[in-house]
Write a structure and sequence with these properties.
The protein has a domain at 1-77. The protein is 27% helix and 22% strand. The protein is built from three helices and four strands. It has helices at residues 15-29, 65-69, 96-106; strands at 38-44, 49-54, 76-81, 88-93. Strands 1-2-4-3 form a four-stranded antiparallel beta sheet, with no helix packed on it.
Length: 114
C-alpha cells in the first residue's frame, strides 16, 4: 500500500459494518484510534498495519501537539505526512494472527478498489 493510499475504509459501503470494524480495531490496538481531526483509517493487510489519518499535519501540527502525542503508544511504529499539506498518518502494527482473524471476519464486506 502506498503512503496516503486508501483501500478499506472507502471500500466498505455499509456504514454500520464500518462502525463495527472500527470498534474491533480499537480493541486490537488497545485505545480509541482517532487522530486529531480524524479523516480515515485503512488496513494494510500485507504488512499487518493500520493507517489512521487526520488533518493535523503540516501547518496544523502546532495546534494539535497534545492530541498527536496521545497517538504515540500501543503498537505505534511510525507517522508520515502526505496526501496534502495537512494530512498526518499514524501507523500501527499488530501480530499477523490478529490481522488474519480480522480480515477473515470482515473480508466479505470489503471490496478492493485498487
Amino acid at each position: 500500500m502506498a503512503e496516503g493510499e486508501s483501500i478499506y475504509e472507502n471500500s466498505v459501503k455499509d456504514k454500520k459494518v464500518l462502525a463495527k470494524m472500527e470498534e474491533e480495531i480499537k480493541e486490537m490496538i488497545g485505545f480509541n484510534p482517532y487522530a486529531p481531526r480524524h479523516r480515515a483509517w485503512d488496513v494494510d493487510a500485507e504488512n499487518n498495519q493500520i493507517h489512521i489519518r487526520g488533518r493535523c499535519g503540516g501547518g496544523n501540527r502546532e495546534d494539535y501537539e497534545d492530541q498527536i502525542d496521545n497517538m504515540y503508544y500501543g503498537p505505534f511504529i511510525r507517522e508520515y505526512e502526505g496526501g496534502d499539506e495537512t494530512m498526518l498518518t499514524f501507523v500501527y502494527e499488530l501480530p499477523k494472527k490478529e490481522w488474519e482473524q480480522f480480515l477473515k471476519k470482515w473480508s466479505k464486506y470489503i471490496s478492493n478498489t485498487n
